[in-house]
Write a structure and sequence with these properties.
Layout (H helix, E strand, L loop, with lengths): L3 E3 L10 E3 L17 E5 L5 E4 L3 E5 L4 E4 L6 E3 L4 E2 L9 E7 L5 E8 L11 E4 L3 E5 L19 H42 L1
Antiparallel strand pairs: 1-2, 3-4, 3-12, 5-6, 6-11, 7-9, 8-9, 9-10, 10-11
Length: 195
């Protein structure tokens, strides 16, 4: 993303202005500077959003802002007043990762006039997320061993189907074993009474 949007200023679409400041998402010189980026939870590496919903950044608070996120973000239900000196009087809710429960950022629900540009945007702390620029060879996700690998929804569905089959098989085997035991017991009683 060669051009970074600064949501505080107006521009050609009267909403955003292109800024010359360095981008939050760092891409390699060889990679396409306009290639889309995927933002990941810094703890469990679940995708939480992408640069196609980019709304801007706030370098003072070290935040990126997105217009949309995916289902891996849980929006807090209880708003509270932000206690930081940089955001006086802002009513916010936490944005947490659905997978690991890490707090990734804030959503501003009520703000003073100078913070109106952040209202209803998903504001992520840069220190809480990671990014991957699509098509960049030098920005690869860190190797994760099998114990730390996140369980994807597709993988979870497969495991649940296999568990259901195994449970069904165990019940069938248990019923068959009970039938065999009853049959053997009746045969032994029949053989025992004949002697």
């Amino acid at each position: 993303m060669a051009a970074q949007m600064d949501a505080r200023s107006g521009c050609s679409d009267d909403t955003y202005m292109v800024s010359r400041s360095p981008s939050v998402v760092q891409s390699s010189a060889a990679a396409d500077p306009d290639a889309p980026a995927v933002f990941l939870c810094g703890q469990c590496r679940r995708p939480v959003g992408d640069s196609l919903s980019w709304a801007g950044s706030d370098e003072e608070l070290n935040q990126i802002m997105l217009k949309r996120v995916n289902e891996n973000i849980v929006i807090g239900k209880e708003p509270y007043v932000s206690c930081t000196e940089n955001e006086p009087g802002c009513l916010v809710v936490n944005l947490t990762c659905h997978g690991c429960g890490s707090t990734l950022g804030l959503m501003y629900t009520s703000t003073p006039k100078e913070f109106d540009f952040k209202r209803s945007l998903f504001c992520f702390g840069v220190e809480n997320i990671e990014s991957y620029v699509l098509g960049s060879a030098d920005h690869q996700m860190a190797a994760v061993n099998s114990e730390e690998r996140p369980v994807t929804l597709e993988f979870q569905d497969i495991i649940e189907q296999q568990m259901t089959k195994i449970k069904s098989l165990a019940v069938t085997i248990g019923q068959r074993l009970l039938e065999i035991e009853v049959d053997l017991q009746s045969k032994s009683e029949t053989n025992g009474s004949c002697l």
